[in-house]
Amino acid sequence: MKSIWMDTTMIPRRNSLTGNKRTEVVIIGAGMAGVLTAFYLQRHGVHVVILEANRIGSGQSGFTTAKITSQHNLIYQKLEKSVGKDHARLYGKANQLAVEEYGKLITRNSIQCHYEKKDAYLYSVQESKKLLKEAEIAKELGLPASFVQETNLPFSVCGAVRFTGQAQFNPLEFLKEISSGITIYERTKVIKVHGHDVITDRGVIKAEKIVFASHYPFVNIPGFYFAKMYQEKSYVLELDSVDDLGGMYLGVDKKAYSLRNYDGRLLLGYGSHRTGKVPDTDPFITMRHTAEHLFPKSKILRGWTAQDCMTLDGIPYIGTYSAFRPDWYVATGFGKWGMSSSMVAAKMLSLQITGKRTPYDSVFSPQRHHIKASALRAAEHGLESVKGLSAGIRPGVVNCPHLGCRMIWNQYDKRWECPCHGSGFEINGKICAGPAQRSLPFID
Question: Could you tell me where the beta strands, DSSP code E, fall in 312-428?
Fold first, then answer.
């Protein structure tokens, strides 16, 4: 499935790697986080190379709804309770500065990417108590938050949290421009990383520092990211002939919707479930019924799915890959908020790699231990992984080449999915989503 961004934006092709090379920093993954990190490293005078297995922006950056916001669902009341007010404030500040940095970067470089400043809203049609609390805490933490009772949605709400000064854009148009001066090797698959050597199917690059910006880290040890992350799937429909709603919206109720306009169209988002746990009913059918009800004059143009890496405490992992690999860095676990998190990662990593510290290092550190924040999710993730691994022991089943979990067939996406860590494969076994590195054997 192609997203609207992929169908409307052509990024010039780059050559593949030919032979062995040497550089200061190599970045694995040419999505938003990888390209922005390279952009800021080059500003610091660092020589950077990006390796991309497919095309620039062909991963999750090409399937996002592309909201640039520090409003990450009902996260601030959760963070204040689980990791404390200071960390919650730093998390919010880092993401709000990221929102503002996009605006400065786009304006300064005259980037044409359908950038629009839009307020962001969290809404509920059931109750307002948790929204009032979120608005109160977010405002206290220094964020541009307020509680409102009126929106431009085509249905009544009990209330909404409004964040002013947020934005939206076309992520691939942005990537097309911002990547123009960066050395990127496309169609170059990283097979293995050993020390300072990045081994690909087209040669070896030796680097002083290595950044994993490939959505889900594929090196299992050290780091053990497979034990502290899982993936979630969600769905998007593109509708035409829909009036501008005057903001970006996300429902906080169960089975609520995400809505944002783009160039005379509406992106309607729905659903969120662990990859490999296939819903009982087709999410696209549910969305079509909703579209017909809320926007009867609209026409469905296309639909696609997105897949997001989720951390156990809801905070991305940005920083040193492992204490045992001080020259490796990682940016992953962005949840549903890849645009602001990518900018946070790029600003942080570009400073860390050049020997500087940031006020946010401890908040996003991959080596952090937030027991209170992650205990429940850790238990749930561990249980799902044990179930998948146990099922994979049975003879005659299709196993994931990552760690051997039993694959699940998703009849809606027509793909094989790993219920443990979210790897995805086409019907013929060809890999289309990591952390697995190899395709499945041919499947009839």
Answer: 317-322, 325-332, 408-410, 415-417, 424-425
Task: Compute the distance between CA of residue 66 and CA of residue 167 in angstroms, rounded to an integer.
Answer: 9
Contact 186, 180 (CB under 8 A): no
Query: 0.70 cut: is pTM over it?
Result: yes
Percent of the residues in the chain that have a pLDDT greater than 70, as a whole number: 93
- Pick from 252-266, 344-358, 383-397, 423-437: least confident: 383-397
Query: Domain map of the chain by residue range?
Result: 4-64+173-226+314-369, 372-433
Q: What is the spatial distance between Cα 90 and Cα 103, in angstroms, rounded to a whole number?
A: 20
Give bridge partners of residue 270 from the DSSP assignment. 235, 257
CA distance 115 to 178: 14
Burial call 10-33: b when 16+ CB within 10 Å, e when fewer: ebeebebbeeebebebbbbbbbbb
Specify the fold of 4-64+173-226+314-369. Answer: FAD/NAD(P)-binding domain (3.50.50)
Residue 284 CA to residue 304 CA, distance in Å, equals: 9
Q: Residue 240: phi, psi to the nearest 5?
A: -105, 175
Q: How far apart are CA 329 and CA 13, in angstroms?
A: 27
CB-CB neighbours of 397 under 10 Å? 11
Helices 129-140, 75-82: inter-axial angle, 10-degree rounding = 70
- Rounded CA-CA distance 360/73 in Å is 20
Q: pLDDT tens for residues 327-360? A: 999 999 999 999 999 999 999 999 999 999 999 9
Q: What is the pLDDT of residues 71-88, one digit of tens each?
A: 999 999 999 999 999 999
